[in-house]
Give the backbone structure.
Amino acid sequence: MSAERYNRQIILKGFGEEAQQKLLRAKVLVIGAGGLGCPALQYLAAAGIGHIGIVDDDTISLSNLHRQILFTTADIGKLKAEVAGKRLQEMNPQIGIIRHPIRLQKNNILDILSRYDYILDGTDNFESRYLVNDACSLLNKPLIFAAVSSFEGQLAVFNAPDHSTLAPGTNYRDLFPEAPDKGEIPNCAENGVIGVLPGILGTMAAAETIKLITKIGQPLTNKILNYNLLTQEQYIINISHGNGYTLPKTVDDFLNMDYQDTSEAPQGYIEIDASELVKLQQLESTILIDVRERHEVPVLDKQIYTQVPMSEFAAFLNKDFYQKQVVLICQHGIRSVAAAEAMQEKYGDAKKIYSLKGGIVKWRDYFLKS
Amino acid sequence: MEIEIISFGQITEFINNQKIEVDGITDTDAFKQYLEDRFPALKGLKYKLALNKNIVQQNTEITNQATIAIMPPFSGG
């Protein structure tokens, strides 16, 4: 290890060579190399964490670049885990970077998490959040949790005993025992996010990770910090153990949990691509429904696409319409899935329900020329 | 009795931070019912209350000048 590289933190009072050695021996897994994961990875690699794993099965797109600052325009289309791994290795050739360009699911997550000491959750959906929380709980791994919504963020350390009282760690289900329904909480793709916000939260998550490893300060164990970018206010809430939820106690319990893995076939409705949309559109008995709110762009031709914003969707479900095929469309294919589930529940086999996978953003060229 | 309300995330869209004067509300269960009656949009959402910065896990007594935070889950990254 080159002491010079880390000199400025080694000379810190209360840090020193000993803390640096702890970082070097630590194995940290960062799940999601996105808006939270990119800055977290940069600081963890720069600080000299000895082994860093990166999990992400996604590829880089143009709309990622305003917040996912490890990537350049030339990286578009490449795997995030690969590009992030290469860049971090260039930043710090003295540490080990392990790339996992896969999607974590029930059948692979325990194997991967068990190779690391600390898990940093920078994912972007509730299915992954609960999957990671429960896997960490089962394996007894400290979990550093960061999440954002619009101009606010949440930061917590789960599953780690309290530094001073040694009280056992709480977990995400002590706050929110069950995941919200799809569409209940808007995500970044639908709601937008200012790039610097996950930058701040991801950096704070890296700081918590370093504090846990080196045992300095008071990490946010059994606490959740709410951060507001617009006011720079922080509000810390103490978490106590809740009840009325089930954490898997054994691997078998875990494998029987329902995390709505995307690998599991959706029920009833079908996700389609633009070419299938074209075919369905030619049938007279097909209705194309745009479920985005009225202010969203690009605006689609109202002659072809009936607009029923999600905020008005429940009322629409009470109306009758003759078309037998229903194609639901939104910006990224997330809200349209929620709409498809609601329609499927109402109509069952009486209508055929489709959702455009990837939404207008993915098939932009098709929508712009039509 | 005076209660200060602090809200987070999309809940701020319909419940502003405010001090309210309420009568006859002495515990968190009753306060939750009051909130959901006054702000029906809250009913369909997952959220957690914190009384004086402590997460509410069971019905807890509220005293004058309490602060109650209303926190929804975030998943974005």
